[in-house]
Amino acid sequence: MQGRIIRVSGLQCLVEVDQSHWQCKIRGRLKAGDRKTSSPVVAGDWVEIVPTAEQTGIIEAVHTRSSKFSRGASGTRPFEQILFVNMEQLVVVVAASQPKPRRGFIDRAIVMALKGNLQPVVCINKVDLTSQEVVDTLTAPYEALGYPIYRTSALRGDGMDAFKAALINRSTAVVGQSGVGKSTLLNGVEPGLGLKTKEIMKRHDRGRHTTTVVHLFKLQQGGYVADTPGVKELRLWGVKSAELAAYYPELEPLRGQCQFGDCSHLHEPGCAVRAAVAAGCIASARYEGYRRIFESLSSDE
Fold this sequence. Notes:
Layout: E1 2-9, E2 12-17, E3 20-26, H1 28-31, E4 46-53, E5 56-62, E6 68-72, E7 80-85, E8 89-95, H2 103-115, E9 119-125, H3 132-144, E10 149-151, H4 160-167, E11 171-176, H5 182-189, H6 193-205, E12 215-218, E13 224-227, H7 272-278, H8 284-300
Parallel strand pairs: 3-5, 8-9, 8-11, 9-10, 11-13
Antiparallel strand pairs: 1-2, 1-4, 2-3, 4-5, 6-7, 12-13
């Protein structure tokens, strides 16, 4: 039987099979060997299961993934932590204020979205807490690149119709740091969304520590939303400093125009990228974000 992973908690997986939820365990051979990721099965996976009792079974195989979003797990022994797979778009949520928006988080999330074959979407929430000028300044570099932008106030209702329409009949993942209003946004898309799944989660988790659990919600009007816990730190995974420019589409037209073929775009003479920044052709905020990420990757290599 085929199903889709809705939630993974410890060694237990909640699998959607047709219109029902099954409790499934992972076959031992899927967990064996020297794995390079945090789990062989994650939210969004399409899997093959063998029934063992009523609405329970064992996951025998995992289908090929079309997309993924991952990060480097913290710790002295870093590994890839895949948060979810098989989604179409990634909505990066930041607050216009309270907490202060962090461009670096947006830029890092976009890099990992592009690497994982996801369409980046930017949502600026809590627009009621600041001026339109501040919001426009924050969104301008991403609008220039053609990324979909949504300005919302989940509490006041600003922009919610457009935001909801962007999720219907799509598979969407939502990421953001704690306090940006993700849960309020999702309840604005479908009122009571969290309450509808609370009992399911309670039965499935059975007291386990679940602060890092990703849950896949099925929307009544069609589509899925993967809600992620607040991300404190988004460490890039699988991206080398020399490859970083490939994930900045505004740098692509300048490929090969620098004096040196291996130009880092940070300090070398004859750099076409820095010249474009000085000329106002590339947003300085985006370039500064590129520089910071490049330096952080270089220090880890």
